[in-house]
Amino acid sequence: MPSWNQTEQEFIESLRQSQREIYKAKKILVIGGGAVGVEIAGEIAAHHAEKSVTLVHKDYGLLSPTPFTKVNEKLQKGGMDIHSYSSPPTDPRLSIDLQNLCKKLGIKTILNVRVFFPSSDKNTEVKWDGKFGLQDELVTVRLKSGDSIKADYIHCGCGMKPNSNLVGEIDQNALDGDLIRVNEYLKVNSTSKVSILNNNHYYAIGDVCSCPGFKVGHTAFASAAKTASNIINEIKGRTLSKYNPGFISGLNLPLGPNEGAGMATFGWLGTWVFGSRLTNRARGKDAGTEKYFAGRFKGDNKPDMKVDF
Ligand SMILES: Cc1cc2nc3c(=O)[nH]c(=O)nc-3n(C[C@H](O)[C@H](O)[C@H](O)COP(=O)(O)OP(=O)(O)OC[C@H]3O[C@@H](n4cnc5c(N)ncnc54)[C@H](O)[C@@H]3O)c2cc1C
């Protein structure tokens, strides 16, 4: 994975390097059937039909589906009871749809199994030393079920966490687990009375903060917009307004340029699960990279913040 402190050129080069490595590989193993693992497996399988792609996931369904009752319970509260790092509860129908799409793309999915990091099967076989990316040769990755998989490219799609080190290194009491502890205005809120982070000058937004609601793009945007308006409120001496994530949320996963599935949740109205047609419409052929990410930093589309004082 590219690191956060790379320059743009280094970042692009590391992505190209991954592409070159995937071209060379024949047997690809993706560890983790969350959004990252499913999208990567789909992307590789769609572009390289001749390669073998295997996806191993620790849960009984892709994206770890939540039973219907739990989904409804959480959604009716708009996810407000969730204060830790959490993705939206996956509707089991979405999990099944994604599994069917994997099958269609020739991806072998192995569920309910964990991988040993690093691992070897028998002494005679080449041990996997835990390194990700292109391997020097075909290695044997051992599963906790007792089975094993041979691979020459291994992608890690699990264990990703928001990086709160910047704050944690200053004050551990300003963390709630791995997240930055915030109050209802998204201001950093340490449990230590003497913390320099409690001086009311710091906000934390998006995935890395402990605000209620699911950790998705929509809530990251909402927390950014709320914080921007509260900073203006502060400058103008106005009262701050509290953050509320709202109760609409969604997920949308492209598996290559032509397939995909997603869900949109509308609080107590329920959850709508949709397929490739809508996913392609929303994300296009490039997984939405240009529309939702790179395009925002270019030319006329580059965001320009104008503040009217
Ligand atoms: C594969 C995948 C699919 C997803 N699909 C959807 C979807 O369909 N719909 C949806 O709504 N959400 C989706 N999400 C979730 C969504 O991407 C996140 O919720 C959203 O990006 C959070 O925004 P953010 O700004 O908080 O964090 P990020 O987008 O992660 O941005 C944080 C940035 O901070 C940088 N950074 C980290 N540490 C430091 C530091 N110390 N100093 C400076 N910079 C630092 C990071 O490099 C990164 O660029 C998906 C996520 C993944 C991984």
From TrEMBL:
Keyword Flavoprotein set for record: yes
For this protein, the record's InterPro entries field holds: FAD/NAD-bd_sf, FAD/NAD-binding_dom
User: Would I find Plastid among this entry's keywords?
Assistant: no
Which molecular function terms from Gene Ontology are attached?
electron-transferring-flavoprotein dehydrogenase activity; flavin adenine dinucleotide binding
Q: Which PANTHER family match?
A: APOPTOSIS-INDUCING FACTOR 1, FERROPTOSIS SUPPRESSOR PROTEIN 1
Q: Tell me the protein family, please.
A: Belongs to the FAD-dependent oxidoreductase family.
Protein name as it appears in the record: FAD/NAD(P)-binding domain-containing protein
Q: Which organism is it from?
A: Kwoniella dendrophila CBS 6074
